[in-house]
Design a protein that fits this description.
The complex is a heterotetramer, with one copy of chain A (305 residues), one copy of chain B (484 residues) and two copies of chain C (323 residues).
Chain A: H1 9-15, E1 18-24, H2 30-46, E2 49-55, H3 60-72, E3 77-81, H4 89-98, E4 102-105, E5 116-119, H5 122-136, E6 141-146, H6 154-167, E7 173-177, H7 186-199, E8 203-208, H8 211-223, E9 231-236, H9 239-246, E10 251-256, H10 259-274, E11 282-284, E12 289-290, H11 295-298
Parallel strand pairs in A: 1-2, 1-3, 3-4, 4-5, 5-11, 6-7, 6-8, 8-9, 9-10
Antiparallel strand pairs in A: 10-12
Helix pairs in contact in A: 2-10, 3-4, 5-6, 7-8
Chain B: E1 3-12, E2 15-25, E3 30-35, H1 41-48, E4 56-61, E5 64-66, H2 71-76, E6 79-82, H3 94-99, E7 105-106, E8 109-110, H4 112-125, H5 142-153, E9 160-164, H6 172-187, E10 191-195, H7 199-205, E11 208-213, E12 216-221, H8 228-236, E13 254-263, E14 267-275, E15 279-284, H9 290-297, E16 305-307, H10 313-318, E17 321-324, H11 328-331, H12 339-343, H13 355-368, H14 386-399, E18 404-408, H15 416-431, E19 435-440, H16 443-448, E20 452-457, E21 460-466, H17 472-479
Parallel strand pairs in B: 3-10, 3-11, 6-9, 9-10, 15-19, 15-20, 17-18, 18-19
Antiparallel strand pairs in B: 1-2, 1-4, 4-5, 7-8, 11-12, 13-14, 13-16, 20-21
Helix pairs in contact in B: 13-14
Chain C: H1 6-9, E1 16-17, E2 20-21, H2 23-42, H3 49-74, H4 82-96, H5 102-126, H6 131-149, H7 163-166, E3 168-169, E4 172-173, H8 174-192, H9 194-211, H10 216-242, H11 253-263, H12 275-294, H13 299-318
Antiparallel strand pairs in C: 1-2, 3-4
Helix pairs in contact in C: 2-12, 2-13, 3-8, 3-9, 3-10, 3-11, 3-12, 4-5, 4-6, 4-10, 5-6, 5-10, 8-9, 9-10, 11-12, 12-13
Bound molecules: adenosine-5'-triphosphate (2 copies) and magnesium ion (MG) (2 copies).
One adenosine-5'-triphosphate is lined by residues 141-143, 266, 284, 286-292, 326, 441, 459 of chain B.
């Protein structure tokens, strides 16, 4: 991941270049591995930046020790791809003690100190989905919500809050929250949707906290032969979801949460900080609403995510 | 001559336990192998069974050199073995244990009704018809499990049948049917290799006798040319003056009084009193309920009614009882632990265990019971030979300094010289004021080593006899529920 | 244990038919029927066709894994790697359908599972390593391989890929039928073939089996291979059912599979366990999940209750057994 | 098993000191030293003070859980609930510090773990249920309870809360010292106290121990209580170290703890296992993770390698042991 294709200049650039550690909370999700790759790709583009990436497998303590491992390797700065984590004060403290800058990507921590954050506004994504659904269901109807879980995952919470803030005030619409979590995967989305369909055969739409679950939910709807009755709304812009939207299926909307953009900006931001530049503390990367109209523009048939 | 071993040696990682054994067995012969605990009998048998490779030496059958690389090879050659330790799979039916790996099949699948029928037929043909082939092996009494073990070796008629202490858990009619079976097999030309510590039965049954001592054959003889005393002398390497000590007949206060003790389905209305300084024998046939009764008195199992039993082993021990159970593997030893840890189990005192004292206590016991090898304290107990394991169990209980000793078949698998030591020890304990209940299926022992004998049949006490005034026949009659 | 007689064992009346003690099976069946009855009377949805089809579909993965697990447990082992194998075989199959005919791709998925099982079995049997650590290590390694093959989910385009997972035969999902076939065939295998009996006997006392001249190693390897193949099949069916294969799927699947076996009375020490009761265990788990969802119980209360119900079930189921 | 001699088993020379066979321990120590030597020569970073402090900190959770697990494993049981207990005790403590003095809040966290252990132990010992299912059920229930207590993470404001997890005594983290104390005290407990010896013996043969007048149930309960308390302590330390307590923390922690015990030669059948070797097992796991990170091995390949290394370690470690 430290590849340099700037030719002869590469060596000298590298000699006085930077080493940046990436502490991923988890890599087992296409969004997060996409982020990791985007950071690495951006570093390769720069030529003088080496990236060391770690994976905490969703374990906060491991994240802390991974950051410690990175500090042992004397990195110049750390990017934390936070995943579903609220905060990591100890991690931030140890980084502060070591005097290293921290850039958060995707996830903003509510406590602790960080240098800069780049990520989406999850509540806004939820709102914009809610608005779309309100329009798409002029006669109202039952809308189901499938959450990723667990209950302390505030990314999902923010998205659901966004959707609810719109739909709960829209007349004619009733909300049904699935009791069980879909665990952010297509298989979970599928089985939660199946259960929903059994108790609520009259759904008009379903919102999932990410596209992976939505893709599973869409399958369950197809299996039940209810493609015409139920529309699907997700978040992320996963390739398969974009394709489904483009093809004009009942997958009608998603909010782009672009790992490529956030990741590469995150690396840029870290390099700027190391270069001594004054940077914006918090940067929201806009999450355009993707529907049938504009899906083609975001769909990359060879893209990873 | 169908079987011959030439200069067989066996070492377990450097320690040689067989030092060049030669052995010849003929067709239609009962060849007895005798020797002290740890002499190497079981090891020899494992080699014959293909379960252990020999380190060097040769095995010949029918004038051909054979090599047994696995039990499978031994089966192919017609050598079938009944091991000293039970090897049944407790969760499986008798049928399945018998026919394992060789089931009757119909269209590729096992035909269970045919299998059960075949098992029943087999059991009946060898006189064990009382065993239901459908029961799980684990639910049978030890004695019946032993019979199934023997039946297992006879599923296909063997050319050589090896029996390692098959009679240790049998008594009365079961023993008779075993002997009858062995004689029938001999007539059919089978070579029976028979290991036992019960010399009387060997003299009765064997055609020739091989005495093993310290891993070497020291004598080959015939019943007509030897005697019990002679064999014991050869095995032990010294003369044993007297097997059973002379018992004095005076007894002290009552230590244990059991009245009307009942455990439904197992024994009923058992009453007896055990006094300080006396040794009481308890004889009965297999399944007469002796072991269950002793366990119940000891608090290991709850009683249905009656008095005299303790509520838990801890209470019993606090009151000075000790119970040496009949099955050392299942309830006497922690096989994976060292000899020391096993022996110390009844005397763990805290908060911190005094290791020095524990070491001394255990060493004292190993010495007192001459557990072999003498430096065994930190060896896993499973490495001891069967008889020495039995001694380790005894040692554990003696260390607790009991006032009442319940001994359930304490000499099972123990060689003659050691038995004599055990009898002497029991006698000494009794003289020091301890009361001993000796459960045994060995008639001679039950008469010789005790002051009086209780006899149980079908869960009830059917008789009480004075050891010096009774006969084997009288005891047997009571044990079959007939009142003489 | 020894010297204990069945007739003496219980305070409970026992039901013996044709020499077999059926008390436990009957009690267990009654328990499941009770669960169904409660569900049917308290929830309008439970007996709807959609819900029944759901329950049938949701059994498939746990069912297949539980059968394979049972075979391994019978030998006295355990297979923690099944969840990772589900992921690997699913993603492999989904990745291969673009170049290979669907049945062949699926075959490869199952064979990958079988191969993982063979490796597990060989390490356990040939090198005498503890099954728990061997399969824990392969849980990690196989999961890693799934990600190495593809970090991102793979969604095959060809709709024929979905057939296996979503086709119905009347009201019954084809995938459920496949699972049932595995259970029936598995039941026959374990009760009526020498290899099956040997596997059970090995769990009871491996040394005895060895002394009976049966190749213990080969049968242990076979058991793990069966578990691997079942997990492979489960992975293929799951990918087809979801329509997307994810390398991250299947985390902690092994726990439900083991729970199903043990609820069905299997002993983790080996040698004891029944195919029918394991199926019952699968049913219990799936019904619990389904009911808690139908009642709309909140996710974490679901967890609290699920654990308590499992304890209750094994307490009830234990009562009539002789101790 | 039957008729096989351990002293006789090996083609390997064995090292016996004072009647104790130390071959295994020496081989295992050599293995760890080899790992350290390789690490030190191939990575500049490994021997830096920061990294050593890291490794020491990283051992704490696995170490505490592994010790508790060892005690349970010795009885022939298993405790799958430890990861959930870590979460519960952590979130309880973090929740309570706002109203209670920190040491008291931490005490409550540890007591919560102890209580979970007592429940596990009672179900296993008093009702004779299979440890695997009991603790699997409590894994689920306790996790649910953690979420019931607080759905969201709790980050105490008071910086004193972080002390336990981050303070250093010279170059050595206080939390590591606590873990070492647990191991030393635990070693004495198991080898020198009647309760410890009884626990080991119960795993070897519970019936023998019962007949020796030892209360088997009470000791089994004690073992699970110890495991629960260790998990509680681990949870408290972890929350303090991370600075925030999450109800979702600790998933699959039990697997590493079990792996550490088994790498250290413990038998899951009970009765065999050593405190020192378990500590070695913890070291091996932590070193593997640290090294793979220092080498910058890519995450998925790390998983692949981690599994392979564990297999390699138990293969090597098995060689000098009698089979
Ligand atoms: N074949 C059998 N059928 C029915 N009951 C049996 C059978 N064998 C043994 N029993 C029962 O087993 C119970 C006691 O067995 P136990 O082992 O205590 O007897 P024991 O006299 O000690 O015999 P052993 O010599 O086997 O030790 C008795 O209740 C007896 O009825
Ligand atoms: N599995 C084993 N591991 C180590 N040593 C053994 C083992 N089996 C036997 N030995 C040793 O080999 C020697 C012979 O033992 P073996 O079991 O053959 O004796 P035996 O003659 O059958 O004794 P017993 O009459 O007590 O059964 C003994 O010193 C014993 O300690
Ligand atoms: Mg012997
Ligand atoms: Mg008896």
């Amino acid at each position: 991941s430290s590849g340099s294709d700037t030719g002869a200049g590469g060596d000298t650039a590298k000699a006085d270049g930077y080493t940046i550690g990436v502490a991923n909370f988890t890599l087992s999700g296409p969004y997060f591995s996409g982020m990791d790759k985007a950071i690495a790709a951006q570093a390769a583009k720069k030529g003088n930046v080496t990236v060391i990436s770690t994976d905490a497998n969703g374990d906060a303590a491991k994240l802390a020790s991974n950051v410690e491992d990175l500090l042992s390797k004397n990195v110049d700065g750390v990017i934390i791809s936070g995943g579903p984590l609220e905060s990591a004060p100890a991690v931030l403290n140890s980084l502060k003690q070591a005097g290293k800058p921290v850039v958060l990507v995707d996830r903003k921590f509510q406590t602790g100190e960080y240098t800069s954050w780049i990520g989406p506004d999850n509540e806004a994504i939820g709102k914009q989905n809610g608005e779309f659904l309100a329009q798409a269901l002029p006669d109202g109807g039952k809308v189901a919500i499938i959450k990723g879980g667990p209950a302390d995952n505030s990314i999902g919470l923010a998205r659901t809050e966004g959707v609810k803030s719109v739909l709960s005030t829209t007349s004619g619409i009733t909300l049904v929250e699935a009791p069980d979590f879909g665990n952010w995967g297509s298989d979970g989305g599928l089985s939660v949707m199946e259960s929903l369909l059994a108790s609520h055969p009259d759904l008009a739409a379903v919102f999932c906290e990410n596209d992976a679950m939505c893709l599973g939910a869409q399958r369950a709807i197809a299996d039940a032969g209810k493609e015409k009755q139920i529309i699907v709304a997700g978040v992320d812009g996963q390739n398969e979801a974009l394709k489904a939207i483009m093809d004009g299926t009942n997958y009608v909307v998603t909010g782009l949460n672009d790992a490529d953009v956030i990741g590469s900006k995150g690396l840029d931001r870290a390099v700027e900080i190391l270069g001594g530049a004054q940077v914006e503390k918090d940067t929201v990367v806009p999450s355009p609403r993707i529907t049938k109209e504009n899906a083609g523009q975001y769909f990359d048939p060879n893209g990873d995510f | 001559m169908i079987l011959e071993l030439r200069d067989v040696r066996k070492d377990y990682g450097g320690v040689e336990v067989l030092h060049g054994v030669d052995l010849q067995g003929r067709q239609g012969e009962v060849l007895a192998v005798v020797g002290a605990n740890g002499a190497g009998k079981s090891t020899l048998i494992k080699i014959l069974a293909g379960a252990q490779p020999m380190s060097s030496g040769e095995m010949w059958m029918d004038g051909e050199r054979v090599e047994l690389r696995s039990p499978h090879d031994a089966h192919d050659k017609g050598v079938r073995t009944v091991y000293q330790e039970l090897t049944l799979v407790p969760e499986l039916s008798v049928t399945e244990n018998l026919l394992m790996g060789d089931f009757p099949r119909k269209r590729g699948l096992i035909d269970w009704s045919a299998a059960h029928a075949r098992a029943r037929e087999l059991l009946e043909s060898i006189g064990f018809g009382a065993i239901d082939p459908r029961t799980k092996a684990g639910r049978l009494t030890v004695a019946r499990q032993q019979m199934v073990e023997i039946a297992k070796a006879l599923v296909t008629e063997p050319r050589v049948l090896v029996l390692d202490e098959p009679s240790a858990v049998l008594a009365g009619s079961d023993l008779e049917s075993l002997f009858a079976l062995i004689r029938r097999l001999r007539e059919r030309g089978v070579l029976v290799i028979y290991v036992s510590h019960r010399l009387a039965e060997i003299l009765e049954l064997a055609d020739s006798i091989v005495v093993i001592k310290d891993g070497k054959v020291i004598e080959t003889t015939e019943p007509a040319r030897t005697s019990e005393d002679d064999l014991i002398r050869r095995m032990a390497g010294r003369k044993l003056e007297q097997i059973y000590p002379d018992r004095r007949q005076e007894r002290g206060d009552a230590l244990l009084t059991v009245t009307g003790l009942t455990r439904r389905g197992e024994f009923e209305d058992v009453s007896f009193t055990l006094h300080a300084g006396e040794i009481v024998g308890l004889f009965g046939l297999v399944g007469s309920g002796r072991s269950e009764m002793a366990r119940c008195v000891f608090g290991a199992e709850p009683a249905t009614s009656g008095t005299g039993a303790y509520r838990s082993p801890a209470e019993a021990i606090a009151a000075g009882l000790a119970l040496v159970t009949e099955d050392r593997k299942r309830s006497g030893l922690v096989l994976g632990m060292s000899v020391r840890d096993n022996i110390a189990l009844t005397t763990l005192r805290g908060p911190l265990i005094d290791m020095g004292r524990q070491r001394r206590d255990v060493a004292g016991m190993v010495d007192r019971l001459s557990i072999q090898p003498p430096q065994c304290a930190s060896m896993p107990v499973v490495r001891l030979s069967g008889g020495n394991q039995q001694k380790a169990v005894l040692a554990k209980w003696l260390l607790a300094e009991p006032r009442v000793l319940l001994l359930d078949e304490p000499t099972r698998g123990v060689d003659m010289a050691t038995r004599v030591e055990i009898y002497r020890m029991i006698d000494g304990l009794a003289r020091s004021g301890i009361g001993v209940l000796l459960i045994s299926s060995d008639l001679t022992e039950v008469m010789g080593a005790t002051d009086r004998v209780l006899v149980m049949a079908e869960g009830r006490i059917t008789g009480e006899l004075r050891s010096d005034r009774t006969t084997e026949d009288e005891i047997l009659a009571y044990s079959m529920g007939q009142h003489a | 244990m020894i010297g204990q007689l069945s007739k003496a064992a219980g305070r409970f009346p026992r039901l013996v038919v044709g020499g077999r003690d059926l008390t436990l099976e009957v009690a267990f069946t009654a328990l499941i029927l009770l669960l169904v009855a409660v569900a049917a009377t308290t929830s309008d949805t439970f007996l709807t066709q959609t819900n029944i089809t759901n329950v049938l579909k949701q059994m498939v993965t746990t069912g297949l894994l539980a059968f394979g697990m049972l075979v391994v447990i019978l030998t006295g082992g355990i297979d923690l790697s099944v969840g990772s194998v589900v992921a690997l075989s699913g993603i492999l199959t989904a990745g291969l359908v673009s170049g290979l005919p669907i049945p062949v791709a699926m075959g490869v998925g199952i064979i990958a599972g079988l191969a993982a099982g063979l490796v597990n079995g060989t390490l356990v049997a040939r090198f005498a390593l503890a099954p728990f650590v061997v399969t824990l290590a392969s849980l990690t390694t196989v999961r890693g391989l799934a990600f190495v093959y593809s970090e991102v989910p793979i969604a095959p385009e060809d709709p024929a890929f979905f057939t296996l997972g979503s086709a119905l035969l009347g009201p019954i999902p084809v995938s459920t039928l496949i699972m049932l076939v595995v259970f029936v065939a598995g039941g026959v295998f374990l009760s009526r073939t020498p290899a099956g009996r040997s596997i059970i006997a090995i769990g009871g006392n491996a040394e005895t089996v060895r002394l009976a001249g049966i190749n213990v190693r080969r049968h242990v390897i076979l058991a793990y291979a069966i578990s691997g193949a079942c997990a492979g099949l489960a992975g293929v069916i799951l990918a087809s059912r979801v329509g997307i294969a994810q390398p991250s799927v299947g985390v902690a699947f092994e726990l439900d599979a083991i729970a199903a076996c043990v609820i069905g009375g299997a002993s983790l020490a080996g040698g004891r366990g029944s195919v029918r009761a394991t199926f019952g265990g699968v049913l219990v788990l799936v019904l619990i999940n389904n009911l808690l969802n139908l009642y709309g119980v909140q996710s974490f209360w679901q967890q609290v209750l699920k654990g308590l119900i499992i304890i209750a079930v094994i307490l009830v189921q234990r009562t009539p057994r002789s101790t």
